Automatic annotation (TrEMBL), chains A, B:
Official protein name in the record: GntR family transcriptional regulator, transcriptional repressor for pyruvate dehydrogenase complex
The keyword Transcription regulation is annotated on this UniProt entry: yes
SUPFAM superfamilies the UniProt entry points to: GntR ligand-binding domain-like, Winged helix' DNA-binding domain
Species of origin: Nocardiopsis flavescens
UniProt xrefs under PROSITE patterns: HTH_GNTR (PS50949)
Keywords, ordered alphabetically: DNA-binding, Pyruvate, Transcription, Transcription regulation
InterPro entries noted in UniProt: GntR_C, TF_FadR/GntR_C, Tscrpt_reg_HTH_GntR, WH-like_DNA-bd_sf, WH_DNA-bd_sf
Pfam families (UniProt xref): FCD, GntR
MF-aspect GO terms: DNA binding; DNA-binding transcription factor activity
HTH gntR-type domain ranges (all copies): 22-94
Length: 255, 255
């Protein structure tokens, strides 16, 4: 997809089909998304003018306008007025941050069973730990090390500990160097921030629990530094399952 | 998160802070998202009235209105007019389909390096194959088997073959029974539909290539049916890497 905006060689032509039903603007959004996923509309391409799109899809211009507003809200297209070369509605490259944000919100609001979310985290973070052990430079690992050290402060309250904990898992995902895996990992970990804090609040002996969590993080970091990918993956899995099974508030979301 | 709409026990109260900068509506969106990810606003909760929200966040009512329109476009809230009990703006449960759709579009439009996307697919589909071998009932596996059989038709053209191929990988993800992993797998596989077709078009000997792909799919299916999760995971990884390395059009997106 990094070649998305270059082109040159032959490619699929957009094949616009008329929209048959009501809620016309949603169907216009569908048609535009189809063209993007089919590779017929790429980053930097202009959408057809509103009038033409309305006529090809057999909908009102109001429906086209509403669809474009929706896609703008998603950051998929941007519009500019005027008549110059750059004017009109253009397909924009989405930022990695936009993906993380949407995915985080979706995981927070979709009723995924908690077991499914935990298994997905285990899969993602095992992969991050193995990749980080193989690929990361000492400089890439520096943020993980600083966070492990920062978590040693006995004066940290649970909220602040949770903040560093979240950032540790984000730093591990980033050290792995795979942007798509990192975005998914970060989104899922951040969507669980509230759950994890509820888990911390439910711990009967926070001093003991936080000592275990510190040791887990340090273990993962040291395995990654020692380039022992399989061990790092096993330790991060053990850590995630520990939090889920041993902190009652984690399951209920009530600390 | 499946308990998201139940509640009852004590929980975090929304803590609304004033918005400091311009592009006020985007910052209103941020504030609302913060409350959702923090667990202070849940599915079924009402947003504060427009007037109050504007006053607490120190923005105009127009900015609040624009923010709510944006969140409606994302399917995060829904509004209804009137003065009854259900009136106002309510946080809605996002559907699994909405996540798949957004993620598919993001993967298609974000400039992730192709290697990152391939590694993410390998991770997701290895997990799906292992889970399916462990969890799926014979009925769950039926769609995979039908698709493998359907792909044996020698009259299939490349477009149609690609359609069945996409559906095979979707069926594998669904047989695994983890909705979040399945949604991510489906989104990434579907976002690559165009690439895969370009790969097929670039194959110098389609009859030979499609025979290999058929054998790969059949191998994965049989390993899953034999409950050999590790073998199924290895075979699906080999299959994904084969398509990427042996079909030149797959890398360039031009078939």
């Amino acid at each position: 997809m990094n070649e998305a905006s270059t082109g040159g060689a032959p490619r699929a032509e957009p094949a616009w089909r008329p929209v048959p039903r009501s809620r016309a603007y949603e169907l216009v959004v569908d048609r535009i998304e189809e063209q993007i996923v089919a590779g017929a509309l790429r980053v930097g391409d202009h959408l057809p003018p509103e009038r033409e799109l309305a006529s090809w899809l057999e909908v009102s211009r109001a429906a086209v306008r509403e669809a474009i507003r929706t896609l703008e809200a998603h950051g998929v297209v941007s519009s500019s007025v005027g008549s110059g070369k750059g004017a009109g509605t253009v397909v924009t490259a989405l930022t990695s941050g936009a993906l993380t944000r949407m995915l985080r919100l979706h995981v927070a609001l979709t009723s995924f069973p908690m077991d499914d979310v935990i298994e997905a985290r285990v899969m993602l973070e095992r992969t991050s730990a193995s990749l980080a052990a193989r690929e990361a430079s000492p400089e890439d690992l520096e943020p993980m090390r600083s966070l492990v050290d920062a978590m040693d402060d006995p004066a940290l309250d649970r909220e602040r500990f949770n903040e560093f904990d979240t950032r540790f898992h984000v730093a591990l995902a980033e050290a792995a160097g795979n942007r798509l895996v990192a975005d998914m990992t970060i989104a899922i970990r951040e969507s669980m921030r509230h759950r994890v804090l509820a888990g911390f609040r439910s711990a009967p002996d926070w001093a003991a629990t936080s000592a275990v969590l510190r040791a887990h993080h340090r273990g993962v970091m040291e395995a990654v530094e020692a380039r022992r990918g399989e061990l790092a993956a096993d330790l991060v899995e053990e850590h995630i399952r520990y939090a889920y099974t041993s902190l009652p508030g984690f399951r209920t979301g009530e600390g």
